[in-house]
């Protein structure tokens, strides 16, 4: 350990020996975003919209997420005292309880997202091994469980080793996606593309088409905040913001291209019916069986890399929240290799629980994907709103002078965008999110008891009551069949 110190909230913490460079931080962002989602995009979009709706959706999502990337870039420079990004910003802006909810929601989102990776891997192999089905059979769950705990043991060996592996895997997994886009362009049929332009009758109005794609775009862009979450390991603080924007710009064009070129290969009705990973089915239609095999291998490499990055980030959020006394103390312990083992264990356990729940879902992959997106929206909204608050109410801890008009505009757009996403998610996923959020208050209460503090302020008690009421309504809705998994 180094002899110098840095601040994490109100506590001084000796910085870890492993310091990450701009290249490694950027690889963390790219590695987090390029995962299961990109391989599911053709079918997910074709189920909701045609080419016109897809172009509008990507324009909205690209602009909104770029604004969020700029928000994280700005906050990394303006408030260098705050670590763990999403969680720390929510706490600084809106108090300890909402900061706790942000930390827990972001962590839970990562855990649910990790389950989508294993479901998609098993679905991919299930094309040749029917016993795995669509990744939702008992055998698939057992094999996924072995994968979960295998990665737990790998990451326990050390953060530096794990991030180095992620850097190599990031390069390996981007290549097959780029090859897919190039091959699809070569086989591109303008007539098929034109027929798919307006969308099919089942897609509904253009507004509903665009709205229907929003959670899918959120899922594939999750990870744009990756460098911010891992900021305490950065060699230079300014690299956190640079890595965020570089990572986002590196993958945005790829995601949009994967979606759009697919409309030039097959009718959208046929794309919508493809099993996941639908990118494999599109390439198989173009070039034959080898295309399906090529994408499937690329997917497995990609998803394992994304799983590694997300597990690291999820454990990091719990660890820093515990260090800042917003989570129970046991989650703030780490090994001599700077690995937050209790936080890593809890992350793996929640992923295991969600994996079991998927056995009872009608569509395990899409349910887990949409829930991942929905859980992340409140942390994103609070981070964007904090940036807006900094611009409207000057804070003496803000570095670099007064907040500029450009930064205020960016924060306002990011706030409106994330609020729209909550609307697009729909009541079902808002209620299910409450079911996840409400029980987490037990961890907050445990942390307060450890400190000998009052459990809730009047304002916090009101927030708690709202979350519990939402959870009760969600449980009732599930029990009566108003919503389903």
Order of helical and strand elements:
EEHHHHHHHHHHHHHHHHHHH
Q: Shape, please? A: globular
Largest sheet: 2 strands, antiparallel
Span between termini: 47 Å
The residue ranges in which pLDDT falls below 50 over 5 or more consecutive positions are 1-17
Strand order of the largest sheet: 1-2
Q: Give me the Rg, rounded.
A: 22 Å
Q: How helix-rich are the residues, as a percent range?
A: over 70%
Number of helices: 19
Mean pLDDT: 78
Report the portion of residues in β strands: under 5%
Overall strand count: 2
What's the quaternary structure here? single chain
Helix- and strand-based class?
Answer: mainly alpha
Short account of what is shown:
The protein is mainly alpha-helical and 485 residues long. The protein contains 19 helices and 2 strands.
Write the layout of secondary structure elements.
Elements: E1 6-8, E2 11-13, H1 22-33, H2 36-46, H3 51-78, H4 86-94, H5 96-126, H6 138-156, H7 159-186, H8 190-195, H9 206-221, H10 226-229, H11 238-262, H12 268-272, H13 278-287, H14 289-323, H15 341-357, H16 364-392, H17 405-437, H18 441-450, H19 458-479
Antiparallel strand pairs: 1-2
What does this structure look like?
It is a single chain. The protein is an all-alpha fold. The protein contains 19 helices and two strands. The chain has a two-stranded antiparallel sheet with strand order 1-2. Strand 1 (6-8) and strand 2 (11-13) form a beta hairpin. Helix 7 (159-186) packs parallel to helix 11. The protein is globular.
